[in-house]
Structures are given as structure tokens and as C-alpha cells.
Amino acid sequence: MTTDTREPASPAASFGDLQRDPRRFGDKLFKGISTGSGTGILVILAAVAAFLVALAMPALLANAEELPYGPFWSWVLPYALGTVWVAFLAMLFAVPTAIGVALFITHYAPRRLAQGLGYIIDLLAAVPSVVFGLWGINVLAPLVQPIYAWLNANLGSTPVLRIFFGGQASGTGRTILTAALVLAVMVLPIITAVTREVFLQTPRLHEEASLALGATRWEMIRQAVLPFGMPGIVSACMLGLGRALGETMAVAMVLSPGPGFNLELLTSNNPNSIAANIALKFPESYGLGVNQLIASGLILFIITLLVNMGARAIVARRAEFSGAN
Questions:
Q1: What's the CA dihedral at 67, 82, 257, 166 to 10 degrees?
Q2: Alpha-carbon distance 34 to 213, whole Å?
Q3: pLDDT tens digits for 263-321?
Q4: Prediction pTM value
Q5: Which residues lie closer than 8 Å to 163 by C-beta, 6 or more apart?
Q6: Crossing angle of helices 226-246 and 72-103, rounded to 10°
Q7: In angstroms, what CA-CA distances link 288 with 57, 58, 117?
Q8: Which CATH number fits domain 73-322: 2.40.50.1000, 1.10.10.1100, 1.10.3720.10, 3.10.50.40?
């Protein structure tokens, strides 16, 4: 019979073994990569902001007579309003459709149909914006032009709706409403994909409790799914709004821009967006014209930043109510 004469390992030795554990090295490596990535995002954002401010200052400080496009604020204001207006119209079409599609995939569609529809939605997000622009010019604009003519004839003389449907209807269909429809199709897969995943995270017990109390499926969705997923819905909408605010090629290709800003949806005199205006005028600009265009890009950067900050505030306020983190 033998006895074990080895002394038990000391706590210091055990700690040293843990320090030499390869898994601990993996934890440290992952922490370093995560910290570096987060810091890198902040550095990139600060670098972009510094670049915009540095190149925009000559235009912001110059006299109005020296600027090739005229006084800066009176020149950029219609483009800023046009950017917000076309993005608002796009979200007006995209958000209800995206939420409806996400609810259909998660709570109504059979499993096979839901999987196939989910793949199609994800594939739609990979289509380049140039393709959407070509589709808007060659397919959508001629298709909706007779509808625009009918809306103009029947609603253009109504006192309240005249603001939106009045004027001379475009003969090509290349209006701000068409650009908004193209943008809505572009942001639809982004909002749908995020809201679909949010709805799938709804606690199953919440849904079953609502159904057990006698609620219909739609009542269960209103009582359990939508309140829980509201922060995620807001986040998805902000992602889509960021895409709509910064979209360039599709708007530049589809829209027939005109001077100034107006709310008319069916005419050829359309307000342009900041991004599309930069894309159209940058190749032929020089001197202070380049600085003036970059300064308008700074305005777009600030608009996007304010929108995202507002979204984060809304999500933070509703997170405690919904139980989401």
C-alpha cells in the first residue's frame, strides 16, 4: 500500500497555472480586439468629422460674393429640406410594409414559406443602388406616371391636398415621389431583417399567456410582441433612415431636380438631396465650390448624427418599459 506524499498546490501556483492557460490568452486577445475595434470606430468617426470641418471652414467663413453657388445657408437649406423630405416619404412607405412583412414571416407564414421569404428579403439588401436607380428610371417611373396624372387631375384642385398633388404633373414620372418609392424598396430589407429578429426574441411565455387569456393572434401581437420589440423597431427604422438620408446614386438617377424646395410630389420641379447634389456637381467644381459642397456634406453629417442620437434616446427610454436590454 502506497501513500501520496505530494504536497497540495499552493494558491499562487494555481493562479500561475490559470495565467498560463491558453483559454485565458484567448480571452485577453478577444478583449483586446474588441476594445481596439470600438476605439477604432470612434477614431474613424472623429477623423471624418475633422476632415469635413477642416475643408468646410473656407466656405463657411468666405463672403457670399466669393462662393460660386451663392450664400451658403440660403443655398444649402433647400437641399437639407429635400434630403429630410425624401427620406421621410421613403420611411412612410417602408416602415409599415417592413413591420407587416416581419410579422407575417414570424407569426403567420408556414415555416417553408417564411424561410424562402426571409432569404429573398436578405438578398434584396445586397442589390446595388445603381440597379435600383436603373429600375426606377426604366420600370417604375413609366409605370406610375398614369397614376400621377390621375392623382393630379382628381386631387390637385382640392384645397388641402393641392400642396402635395397640385402643379403640372410630370410627363416622365421622375418625381420626388418616385425617388421616395425607390428608397423605400432599398431600405425595406434592412428594416424587415432587424424587426424579424426582434420579433423572434419575444418571450414565448408572454405570447402563450396572452393567448391563454382569450386574445386573438392579432391581439397577442399588440399586447406582447409589439411592446417588447418597440426599441428594436425604432433601431431598425433608424438604420433604414440613415440609408435613406445618405443615398446618392438612386436619387441622382431617378430624380429630376429643380431649384428651391416645395412639397409637390408629382411635378418635374423637385427638391434635390444633399448627397445627390454633391454627386452631380462635384466633378465640375473647383476652388471654393469644392469647399462649399463639402460643407453641405458636413450639414448632412450633422443631420444624420442628430437623428441617430434621437433614436438612441428613444430606445433608452423605452428599454425599461419593454424589458429589452
A1: -130
A2: 45
A3: 888 888 888 899 989 988 888 888 888 999 999 999 999 998 888 887 777 777 765 54
A4: 0.83
A5: 263, 264
A6: 140
A7: 10, 7, 49
A8: 1.10.3720.10
